[in-house]
Predict the structure.
Amino acid sequence: MDDLTLLNPCTADAQKVLERLGQFISWCRMKFKPRKSRSLTMKKGKLDDRTHYTVGGEAIPSISDAPVKSLGRWFAKELSDKNQINEIRTMVEDGLKRIDKFTLPNKLKLWCLKFGLFPRIMWPLMMYEIAMTHVERMEQRISVHIRKWLGIPPCTTNISFYGHSTKLKLPLSALTEEFKVKKAHMYSTLRDSSDQVVRGTVPDIRTGRKWNAQQEVEEMESRLRHKDMVGPTQTNRAGLGMNPTQYFFKASTKMKRKMVSDEVRHKEEERRVAKAVGLVQQGAWCRWECVEPRSLSWKDIWKMESGTLKFLLRATYDVLPSPHNLKKWAKTENENCHRCGKKGSLRHILSNCQVSLVEGLYTWRHNEILKELSNALKITIEKANQTKPLKAPAMISFVKAGTSTGANRKARQHTSRLLCLARDWQLVSDLDEQMTFPSEIATTNMRPDMVVWSKQSKSVIICELTVPWEENIETAHEYKTSKYAGLILECKERGWKVDYYPVEIGCRGYATKSLHFFLSRMGTTKRRKLALDLMEIATRSSAWIWNKYKANLPNKQLEVASCIDAAGPPPAT
């Protein structure tokens, strides 16, 4: 009897039963410890503290005098979790205040929240019967501190740091999502237990009226069975059967529980995306068709400067104190740009201001990115010129079923990379000096950003870099494609093989598929690191342009913008 002893005091021989039980335990050569047991007496539905029990002359403590803890859950005389809910909320508040008082960088405070406070409160949330309303209130308090530590205003939606399918992914998770996953996993674990007694007496997991664990598990299993009937669907450019598919009806019990938990997360993410689509300004990232998601790991956050991370978050969701936003937040009356007189939105400041264009701010940002890309390609070309060239395959080499494809590795390498057919590649870029297009290829006044050519294979690679507003990437791609159509045609008429690649990197630091495709075709090593470096340069350059613009604001707008940077605008209504 290590946990709890429940007896009916109405029976006359309740004390005798305890004495005989103690004798039986002694006969089994076990030591009965009354002080480690607990007694609970109920009379007419009310707790009775006057009745006591003894074994061997030693009294058994009442649960009113000494509450007992089992599996991290306290059992007290109230037999209710109301007090425990208040203790959990106090634990969350105290934990947030302690983390906030630490003399640590804000990025490290986020890490303490993720790996310090969250694991401490998740087990009590799973063990006690807590309504979803209380968990949502705790998440609201956590979200307030996350916004503070990230340096984003209170009006920023929590989708910006909890979302998993947004364009900017942070390594944070919502408390309500983790709560639902844990409760659903606990219910499926008890229901599918190998113990027949546990499986036949599954308790009712109470989580309030907003959400029910049993209904959620049944719904997720229904969705998984529907996916089994539909079969694997194609979501990217990979061929059919390239991605392994785990069927629900074939999975083991343990795997089924994991699939149900993952499906709960997918449903929560669908709810976030549906909400983000309805946000005109902060949900604009939903309309970035060609932009690749940018996922920040903890390692990336450590390396990134605090000011750059703050600008990236604010610029992504357009919550910087631009003149247009200041008027929208009822802070000023004038929304026009003080430099050109047009509407002073963030889009105008970072990519459309004619005064900034004439001063060369956008050109400077473009050249900073082009310089890093050009240096990386020079290293790639030097390595390619030092290796033995490959011969182009005369025909397609088919592979029999069951045989290895190692013999065709070089042929596949040839078809995927452009620098394998020659070893006299040259590169010229439009950076410091005014570039002239190689005369042996074509005669033109056009100046692409980079030209790589080989006289041996008579091949030329043209790259044109653009740093537009993310929502204008498709328009910029089409414009650059049509702009150089005449030059490409002239090169082909002279017998040159032309590969043209318009590459776009968003002014806020988001790369497109065209960048990854171009680096892959050029055979650049460490492509992911190079892409991250290019995006980081774009973010830092745009942050510098924004700071320069803000510093030249009129006195009233500058004062308001500085106050908002420190405290943030009021929450959105």
Observations:
- DSSP finds 21 helices and 14 strands in the chain.
- The CA atoms of residues 429 and 450 lie 4 Å apart.
- The mean pLDDT is 84.
